[in-house]
Amino acid sequence: MFIYNVKFNGKSFVKILLIIVAIAITIYFAVSAYKIYNNSFKVKDNIKESDVMYLTSENYTNILKSVHDDVDTYIGKKICFTGYVYRLLDFKETEFVLARDMIISSDMQTLIVGFLCDSKNAKDFPDQSWVEITGEISQGSYHGNMPIIQVNEIKQIEKPENDIYVYPPDDTYVPTSAIF
Q1: Which of 10, 16, 127, 151 has CA atoms 20 to 30 A from the CA of 140?
Q2: Residue 176 gets which letter from DSSP?
Q3: Which residues lie across from 141 on neighbouring strands?
């Protein structure tokens, strides 16, 4: 038969209890800091998780900037949006920019923004005609690497009465290039 003599020392018990509480608090703050850090770099560009990204005048520039900043993330994604056909002199016969006018100042000065598109039917749509396209994002080259929309469907539409302008990316936009 064994007999154990256990003495209860109040000072040692308090020290051990304080060490356990300190470790628990440290673990709690470490987990909280990790969650905050992990969530702070999520892209907040209003892209809906679905098979096709639908661009509207509200999310147009956020998505445009996100795709241009990190094209590799978006390669193969389907996209649907409207705009007008805009061409430059050095475009191929199948290329055009599906453009929108972005307001850059309070006196309604605008800048043309948009995605470069490639479509075998491009010549059927004159400059300044409004179209709706559905296509797939790919990486291409026009004076450097950039996203190009490979158009699957294109149809002419009437120029909208409202929502013809887009605005610079808003404060919910977090550039994906900031992700390490």
Answers
A1: 127
A2: G
A3: 145
Contact yes or no for 155/131 (Cβ under 8 A): yes
Q: What are phi and psi of 88, to 5 degrees?
A: -110, 165
Name the DSSP class of 70: -
Domain covering 52-171, topology: OB fold (Dihydrolipoamide Acetyltransferase, E2P) (2.40.50)
Encode pLDDT of 21-55 as tens digits.
Answer: 999 999 999 998 888 887 766 555 554 455 788 88
pLDDT in tens, 73-107: 899 999 999 999 999 999 999 999 999 999 888 88
Give the DSSP letter string of 9-59. -HHHHHHHHHHHHHHHHHHHHHHHHHHHHHHHTS--S---SSSEEEP-TTT
The pTM of the full predicted model, rounded to 2 decimals, is 0.65
Pairing of strands 78-86, 130-141: antiparallel
